Amino acid sequence: xxxxxxxxxxxxxxxxxxxxxxxxxxxxxxxxxxxxxxxxxxxxxxxxxxxxxxxxxxxxxxxxxxxxxxxxxxxxxxxxxxxxxxxxxxxxxxxxxxxxxxxxxxxxxxxxxxxxxxxxxxxxxxxxxxxxxxxxxxxxxxxxxxxxxxxxxxxxxxxxxxxxxxxxxxxxxxxxxxxxxxxxxxxxxxxxxxxxxxxxxxxxxxxxxxxxxxxxxxxxxxxxxxxxxxxxxxxxxxxxxxxxxxxxxxxxxxxxxxxxxxxxxxxxxxxxxxxxxxxxxxxxxxxxxxxxxxxxxxxxxxxxxxxxxxxxxxxxxxxxxxxxxxxxxxxxxxxxxxxxxxxxxxxxxxxxxxxxxxxxxxxxxxxxxxxxxxxxxxxxxxxxxxxxx
Length: 389
Hints:
By secondary structure, the chain is of the alpha/beta class. It has two domains: about 5-15 and about 255-380, Alpha-Beta Complex (Aspartate Aminotransferase, domain 1), CATH 3.90.1150.10; about 20-250, Aspartate Aminotransferase, domain 2 (3-Layer(aba) Sandwich), CATH 3.40.640.10. It has eleven helices and 13 strands. The strands form three sheets. It has a seven-stranded mixed beta sheet with strand order 2-8-7-6-5-3-4, with helices on both faces. Strands 9-10-13-12 form a four-stranded antiparallel beta sheet. Strands 1-11 form a two-stranded parallel sheet. The chain starts with 5 loop residues before the first strand and ends in a 10-residue tail after the last helix.
């Protein structure tokens, strides 16, 4: 078995794309002027800022780049989208599943305590949202949907979500903090009113993100103070991070299909290898294909605790996440596993393998052997369990 380490925790963070790193280094090596001034150096910084905004607009294929503003990351983008809508409309109905990211759930619960009605959307056994079972409410509404799920990898049907939002006379918010790039978005973001992105999941630096807001509905600024970001977000712009995010999105515009095909093949090789070698391995969410992010595998190994298996995987050379990335420290059952009806022993045994553009098929072949070895090593202390083929 090879001694090479295989990094499969890209959802938590991974290597930046070289184009993003180069863009950041260029800004960091320059004069550091704020984009808001009137002198030449400020104008040069402003050009960097607006070029990154243009690169984001081209990634989305939208013409109005002024409706895009940069943030400190996915959490801020999500909170600004939901709470900004809530403060803009004052009261209404929010449609959301029981398995959203904690940033979404926290914003929704805050509005709920302020009098907003929350309608929970059920999912099927693979995590697909069931819009046909939802009755539209009255008044203003916000439909919250993830592009791809961080624990299940399920890619949601945004067209169905948009149809429901229209029937409910509601705005549609898409949490694309997991899935952007990996899962195609509608042309020109058709039907989408708000969309959040987290930079580090598209090969940009941590601490970068953005929010797209379509014009034509009430929305309140959440970070107030100065007049930066077209009056949509106050605060001196983090120009190196913004330049890195813009460059990363430009690379996805150019090479996204190549990334998806290469990583999709790696994903299939890894899952097939584990499935054939480990009898208790079970994939949660859809099979690899158009209904699943190619960068994600959520596999449970019933009979083994996820945290213990993740530690053994680390020792044999695989970096992966045990349990939901958002609840690992509390050792709770991931909400998504509960929502899809997974058995408790499966929910406690979930390992997330998340891939990036740097992962190769050769690494998948090594990783499946390492995963097999880790399961053997851990199950050897549980002699009553016969887990391997």
